[in-house]
Design a protein that fits this description.
CATH architecture of the largest domain in chain A: 2-Layer Sandwich
Distance between the termini of chain A: 72 Å
CATH class of the largest domain in chain B: Alpha Beta
Number of domains of chain B: 5
Shape of chain A: rod-shaped
Strand content of chain B: 15-25%
Strand content of chain A: 15-25%
Structural class of chain A: alpha+beta
Largest sheet of chain A: 7 strands, mixed
Helix content of chain A: 25-40%
Number of strands of chain A: 10
Largest interface: A-B, 84 and 89 residues
Number of helices of chain B: 18
CATH architecture of the largest domain in chain B: 3-Layer(bba) Sandwich
Oligomer: heterodimer
Radius of gyration of chain B: 40 Å
CATH class of the largest domain in chain A: Alpha Beta
Number of helices of chain A: 12
CATH superfamily of the largest domain in chain B: Phenylalanyl-trna Synthetase, Chain B, domain 3
Radius of gyration of chain A: 39 Å
Chain lengths: 345, 626
Amino acid sequence: MDLKELKNLVGEFKADAKKISSVADFEELRQKYIGKKGKIAQLFEVFAKLGTEEKKEFGKKINEMKSEIELEIVDLQERFFNKKVESPLDQFLKTLPGKKVEAGHLHIITQTIREIVEIFKPLGFVRVRHPEIDWEWFAFDALNIPVTHPARDEWETFFVDAPADKKYGRLVITPHTSNGQVHEMLKGELPIRMLGISRCGRRQEDIRHLQTFFQFEGLAIDKGISISHLKGTLDYFAKNFFGPGREIRLRPYDFRFTEPSFEVDINCGLCLGKGCKLCKGGWMELGGAGMVHPNVLRAGGIDPKVYTGFAFGWGVERTYMMKSGTQIDDIRHLFNNNLRFLEQF
Amino acid sequence: MNILVPQNWLKDYVKTDAKTADIANALSLHAFSVEKIIEMPGGESVFEIEITPNRGDALSVLGIARELRALLPRLGFKADWQEVKNKEISEVDKLKLDVQIADKSLVPRFCALVLEDVQIKDSPDFMKERLEAVGQRPLNNIIDITNYLMFDKGQPMHAFDYDKIKGAKMILRESKKGEKLVTLDGATRELPAGVIVIEDGEGRLIDLCGIMGAQNSEVDENTKRVLLFVQVYDPVRIRKSSMALGHRTEAALRFEKGIDFDAVVSALKEAADLMKQYASAKEASKLIDILNVEYLPKEVVVDYEKINLVAGIEISEKEVNEILQGLGFESVGQKVKVPSWRYDDIDLPEDLAEEVIRFYGYYKLPNKLLTGDLPKSADQKLFFLEDEAKNFLKHQGFFECYTNSATNENLAGDGALKLANPLTEEFKYFRTSLLPQLAEVLEKNLGYGEKIKVFELANVYLPQEGKLPTQPLRLGLVVKGMEFLEFKGVIEALQKEIGVKNLINFEVKEQKEGILTAELDFEELVKKAVSVKTYQPLCGFNSIKEDLTFVVSSNGEVVYPQIEKIILESDGRILKLNFKGIYKNFLTLAIEYLDTTKQISSEQTQEIRKKIFDRLEKQLEVKLKL
């Protein structure tokens, strides 16, 4: 190859370029001219053997030609593939993060309540809500907790500064959702499968307790309901809420409104009941439960000779915090409404 | 309440091959929760046990031992009961005590005995060690014996210096408001009315009954004669008094849960016997035993069917009977006689079912899911729409907040319900609106960003005289960095999202510069929400769209809804009307025309347009911008 041929190369390329009709043709063309063993590469081989003077002239020409052919190829490629070839800056721009969509957050209490509701729904439990400020009668007396009973001290109860009702007593901030039990019974429809979720209030505040908190109350009343049903239901909840390896067990306890009454334990998520540093003995307390006391059924107008039932009432926040991996060490975060906390959920 | 029970002490009553962990496990699963096992320096184990409020009978070593006696053999362990012989005393008619009880209900049983020649000294080592193991500081032999038996048998008792009871006379009565006495701990206590007290022959108060003795009659190193004092008090009065005084002693906590009335005399005799052994005491009086209440034997029906129903499996009659007998219930035909120590706790067949099934073992019952009929009504619309609304707001960039239902006086609003016993000033009044607390949340988070949006869906509490307060569910929204119309638009869109067709009015307030708030009655929204969407038939004709700009007179009388109403009512062929923008007082609206019966023409839209212009100008003086 010599300078003469060199002059024709661009013309030759353009003629070839007109003929291409497929991706393969295009690739062939590209290889023919600017491939590793292409015409330009061959020219450089010739160039290497030239004398100094010749090199000057020849080198300049090859480079001009190379640029021209490369530009033609880019152009051809864009036309042929109907696609813009990206510049380095274009490529960088694509690596930038997408424009942020304004994202809000639902509170973890809402998320937990939804999870609880979804677990109980297939079992036929219907969500309800009962008064958060209620008569003392529903919060205590109807639940078989007379005024003089020591069990009544167990709840650090808030009272409203208002005159008492002759029949129903004072206004209280319900210290538990169990006030809903008799409200529900008095609706007069059986069977009952209720999931009551409401705010409660107790006169205490520390890293484990808040003056405002949520409870969820399960109540099932029908003919033939037994402790086995309570166990089955709570076990179903535990497996779905905490994980498939989790189990519950009942231990004796005492609540005035249930007979028998239970403390419900769950096996530790870390050791699954074998015993480890976290749980001491393999089990952790989850909350209370029991078979509805005949006096409570009577207060709700239900004949305890015909019907039995079970009930449980647990703290929403506490139950959530017992999920492994949540790492919330202080319940007070939940009502602090620091957006930097809330945005993590 | 929690009690401490040393394992060695239990051996006084029951000998077993069960190990410490076996005992703890048996108790936790069948009786009481063993919260901790404390290892003492000498290698002894002490159980810390949580006793439920119904089980006053178990607040002692004896009580726990009784439970283990019945329980351990069922779990394959030996449990040999160590019969404790009742101690006897020799009564001497020498020293007297004049007892006057005006109100018999105060003290169902009153027992006392005078002892003389008492030598006050240290208690024997075993007693001191055991007292220390249960957290009681040893003082001297007489006082230690009374404490020792309280932990041993659950019967609180007291020892007076007999010579300090003036006139050897005791008047047991209720206190009058304002009376004072100094208790053994040195505290001067001013009493409310209704506390059970004892007055001596000189009118001095010498005992705060069931709670703590008085300093003026205490046993000290010079005491020679002792009045040993063992009672059953009215639990309700003890509880009330001890709460009112804020003085919750070990004695009071036991008295208020009920005492085994049948064990009072034997406990007194045992104490006298120990005083004879360890303080060289001699009997110096007759046994005083005043029974003010007649305890009729209590019998409860054993309902085997109910037990099986509650358990969900069959427990044989034989096993039921065995369990009940083990716990001290005596069979009387179809019934059982309740042991004296369970007198206050067992009343119903259901109570017996609990005893049987807990001993059988809750963990042995199968897990079953509910079968049978489902509840008849299940209206979940409210909850469904709450979720819809929350999701919508979340996607509009709102943060959901949960604030306290009570707050301080300033934030709660006028006429808010007030707590009678608040814990803090910040939780004293029940809110009548969600907005003040939400605005506070926003203020606290100002540094978070330029644009902040928060909401809460919760109840407020509105007092009603003589009735339960109404507790409507409200939706409160507070934002910063949003345009007024942008904020309003979100709330309008939210209403549409949950199915409200005729939007309900709401007020957007500028709470402070740049902070906008709005509150809606959510239940009202839900009532208006239509869950069934009605289909409008589609037609194949094209619509015509155009923008029109009007000049709104600035007399302040025209409001947008009027303009909208007039335009929409001008012609049935107006499909949509949207606000597009406003510049100064130039209002631009986007209108879409459609005739569902035929293709609409520009001549026809012109005709409609003219109607619009006429009406707007005539009724509102709103004209087309030329």
